[in-house]
Amino acid sequence: MRGIAAAPVFSLGFRPFFLAGAGFAAIAVAVWALWLYGRLPGAQPMGGMLAWHRHEMPFGFTAAIIAGFLLTAVPNWTGRPGLNGWPLIGLVLVWLIARLAWLMPMPAILLLALQVPFLPLLACVLGRDLIAAGKRENYPVLLMVTLLAGCQALTLLGIFNEDVNLQRHGVLAALWLVGALMSVIGGRVIPFFIQRGLNRPATPAAHPLPGKVLLISAMLAAVSFAAGLNDAPRVWLALLFALISGLHLLRLWRWHDRGLWRVPLLWSLYLAYTWLAVATLAMALWHLGWMPQQSLATHSLAVGGIGGLVLAMIARVSLGHTGRLLQPSKAIVAGFTLLLLAGVSRVLLVPYSGWGLGMSALLWCMAFGLFLSRYTGILFKSRV
């Protein structure tokens, strides 16, 4: 038993959670697509497959990746030891039991109760270290993880009460909250990665005001979904989303360097972040009546933005934190391209063809499958 806790895969949070999150991403989307096309008959989980899909993508897949990243980043920010060994195994098991619970016959209240502990426990672990180290500049990250737990509670309440609107409000609030979190993390690491990856001299720090306005605006957008304000078009929300999109575009303009297009670990991050600008612009257009389906904006964020940033980030972080050269294999570069095409297919093909969703799901699963095929061995082995 002592040997299990000392295994390299449980030495730091990114190892088990990146593997678990990537594996679940491929499985969950494959199951969802097979069910949509009538290839998966049989009993459905509580609330139906739509409720399961809505819940598991932000609170299963995305939450695992967030946990892996923050359990690795916070020790760097604070200088305190990261969660490892049996405490890390325990947190992984809490996440895993919640995923498996959907497959088991049990009372509804128990099933939903098993979903609750993971995000509060993660917030407690992160908060303990951030508060002990006095890292107040990182408290917004802790706040967003805590709010994500609140979005999950709202979603679960909707599932328990069979309230589809409440489910939708909780899930969309969570999705846009993750977008806000990724704008914070992306704003920190992407320009740093570009500078280091291209051996560029350090540039003067950007004025903090646009970043603060972006954070506040993105949080307001998430709150507007939780309150159900996006159920109908509103001009003032169009202005809010247009502001967020403009601030994302300003960042992309500041970060751009022609050299990044030669480096897959950089263009994959840059293009994935571009989807955040696309998604917020699409929401602005929907509120103005110029976009036919709000779901196109939602999936621009979910597939292109969050999916793309997740794959690009876990590919780079896994190499860097295991002491390997920042040179991804051709298979992973292909995975970056496949996920980009998955986003394009989900947004541009679905309105015109029923097979667009299946194509998007297939490309998504192939991308994360390639990550697992190349990185499982790396994440199970000791640092080089």
UniProtKB/TrEMBL annotation:
Species: Pseudomonas fluorescens
Keywords of the record: Membrane, Transmembrane, Transmembrane helix
Signal peptide (UniProt feature, chain positions): none
Residues passing through the membrane, by range: 12-37, 57-74, 86-102, 108-127, 139-160, 172-193, 213-229, 235-253, 265-288, 300-319, 331-349, 355-373
Stated name of the protein: Short-chain dehydrogenase
Entries under Pfam families matching the protein: NnrS (PF05940)
